[in-house]
């Protein structure tokens, strides 16, 4: 295997390190930085959906212990990997730290779920820091896995830059700290696609089987991972064409081997899905009916859970441009400019463009992002976090673009590769400090692209807020002398329940007469329900809290 034009040395220009030594060192750096950024103050506030995933994790663990496989079907998302990570974390704390008891888990699993049951939410909020450790660890291991895959696709130096971009992506960082689905699903989808690109380049069957395995894991997390399948299929077809182009006309192309690659990858994906979800063992039809039923509902209906606020107005549907706007707001200046450079590089003449395999990788990544956004945009239920799979692919493409530009800038210098790597990492570090520093340690969800106008403009454009900052309101309310006897009406029940000792009721017309105080969150001011309209802009607030300026 020869080195392509512009490709940096395998060690990324390091001295004194062997190849495996450099990889080991960089993987440890990724693990350390990942744990620091994702684990520090990870439970500073509660997002609206996290108590539900603690509840499902406890019920999942209880079902496993009883051997009641059918009850491992808790939701049609299906969220199996999130429940596995939550269940194993709770079990570890039960056996090792003693912070969780079997009776506690049995009691929670025996209670009916309701998103506004304050008594249940208080128990779940108390378990949340214990339940999410496994998910954060899994996210960090996945980041290392992505680096190792990218190293095979694009070389060490570019893979280092790409993994650094992924590590510090504010939106990915924010979602990777949450006991939820999207960060895990997005990383597994990208890993599956990268494994397929290795298959395209090297033609080794086991790499395509790895792509199938990773796709199966992604589907266990969230069903929209199925949208990576067309991209894997495209790579599979491209492999057939590439193999035929390289074969002499007289050589017989073993098309049966190529067909076998695709069939086995499908079987591996299906086998992974079935092996890790006990509900499929007990009642496969019911499990699949729940999964596809929920997917169809999300695609054909616009549930009330989606705040239909867009460009300053409450709208009936968010529309086809929503995800393009979400990418604009949720990406970073360095990534967006790098993605533009990467896209431009594809069209340049050979003597100016990056190496051929880098151009092919850029095209594949950007194509994956565009196709995914087009397909996910067909569904009526829309959240900005559903754009994360595309954002991660754009991060990697941007790293390729910046590394190409840096190599060209540093071409006259003797240590070209080292200079190029240093330039990219310096820009990455400066941006990381400027963008993440003000939000450290916990409020990365409040990040919005400064080129788009940042958080102030996002508030006028997109649905914002998923619990960040609600802990400040909880502290203020809990500090009142009459807190234990004061009733608060709010939709932020999940975030308030952990620390507020008084009664909490949902912000409905029926419950409002019971309330002494009303707590409005930013999303309430955007959606402006009749109950919120009664207070917002009409009554002077007792207290106003802000996050991220």
Which features does this protein show?
3-stranded parallel sheet, 24 helices, mainly alpha, 549 residues, 61% helix, single chain
Main beta-sheet strand count, sense and barrel state? 3 strands, parallel
Shape by Cα distribution: globular
Secondary-structure-based class equals mainly alpha
Number of domains: 3
**Mean pLDDT over all positions:** 92
Count the strands? 5
Describe the structure.
With 549 residues, the protein is mainly α. The chain has three domains: 25-40 and 136-245 and 255-439, no CATH class; 50-131, no CATH class; 470-533, no CATH class. The protein contains 24 helices and five strands. It has helices spanning 19-39, 50-66, 80-97, 102-109, 118-131, 133-154, 156-168, 170-176, 182-202, 205-221, 229-246, 255-275, 278-282, 284-300, 322-330, 333-347, 356-376, 388-409, 416-436, 454-459, 470-478, 493-496, 522-527, 530-533; strands at 309-310, 313-314, 487-489, 503-505, 517-518. The strands form two sheets. Strands 4-3-5 form a three-stranded parallel β-sheet, with no helix packed on it. The model is unreliable at 1-14 (pLDDT under 50).
């Amino acid at each position: 295997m020869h080195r392509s034009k512009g490709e940096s040395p395998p060690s990324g220009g390091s001295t004194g390190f062997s190849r495996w030594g450099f990889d080991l060192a960089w993987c440890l750096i990724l693990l350390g930085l990942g744990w620091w950024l994702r684990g520090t103050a990870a439970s500073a506030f509660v997002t609206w959906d996290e108590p539900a995933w603690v509840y499902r994790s406890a019920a999942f663990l209880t079902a496993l212990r009883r051997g009641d496989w059918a009850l491992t079907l808790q939701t049609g998302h299906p969220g199996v990997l999130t429940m596995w990570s939550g269940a194993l974390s709770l079990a570890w704390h039960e056996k090792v730290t003693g912070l969780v008891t079997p009776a506690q888990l049995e009691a929670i699993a025996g209670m009916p779920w309701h998103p506004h049951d304050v008594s249940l939410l208080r128990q779940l909020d108390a378990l949340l820091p214990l339940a999410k450790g496994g998910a954060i660890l899994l996210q960090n291991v996945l980041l290392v896995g992505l680096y190792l895959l990218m190293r095979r696709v694009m070389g060490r130096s570019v893979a280092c830059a790409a993994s650094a971009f992924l590590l510090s992506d504010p939106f990915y960082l924010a979602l990777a700290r949450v006991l939820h689905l999207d960060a895990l699903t997005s990383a597994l989808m990208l890993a599956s696609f990268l494994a397929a690109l290795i298959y395209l380049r090297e033609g080794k069957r086991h790499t395509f089987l790895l792509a199938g395995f990773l796709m199966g894991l992604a589907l266990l997390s969230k069903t929209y991972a199925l949208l990576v399948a067309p991209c894997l299929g495209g790579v599979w077809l491209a492999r057939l064409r590439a193999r035929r182009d390289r074969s002499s006309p007289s050589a017989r192309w073993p098309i049966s081997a190529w067909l076998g690659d695709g069939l086995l990858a499908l079987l591996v994906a299906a086998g992974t899905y079935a092996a890790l979800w006990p509900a499929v063992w007990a009642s496969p039809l019911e499990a699949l009916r729940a999964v596809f039923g929920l997917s169809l509902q999300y695609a054909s209906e616009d549930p009330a859970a989606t705040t239909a606020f867009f460009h300053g107005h409450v709208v009936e549907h968010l529309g086809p441009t929503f995800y393009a706007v979400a990418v604009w707001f949720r990406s970073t200046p360095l990534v967006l400019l790098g993605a533009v450079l990467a896209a431009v590089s594809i069209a340049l003449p050979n003597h100016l463009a990056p190496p051929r395999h880098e151009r092919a990788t850029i095209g594949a990544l950007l194509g994956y992002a565009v196709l995914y956004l087009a397909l996910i945009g067909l569904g009526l239920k829309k959240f900005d976090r559903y754009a994360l799979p595309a954002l991660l692919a754009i991060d990697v493409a941007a790293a390729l673009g910046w590394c190409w530009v840096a190599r060209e800038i540093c071409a006259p210098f003797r240590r070209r590769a080292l200079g190029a790597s240093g330039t990219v990492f310096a820009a990455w570090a400066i941006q990381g400090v400027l963008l993440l520093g003000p939000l450290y340690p916990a409020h990365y969800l409040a990040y919005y692209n400064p080129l788009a106008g940042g958080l102030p403009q996002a508030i006028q454009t997109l649905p914002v807020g998923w619990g960040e900052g609600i802990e400040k309101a909880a502290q203020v309310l809990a500090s009142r002398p009459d807190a234990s006897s004061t009733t608060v009406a709010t939709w932020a029940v999940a975030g308030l329940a952990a620390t507020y000792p008084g009664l909490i009721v949902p912000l409905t017309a029926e419950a409002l007469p019971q309330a002494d105080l009303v707590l409005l969150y930013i999303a309430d001011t955007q959606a402006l329900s009749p109950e919120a309209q009664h207070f917002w802009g009409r009554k002077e607030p007792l207290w106003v809290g802000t996050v991220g300026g």
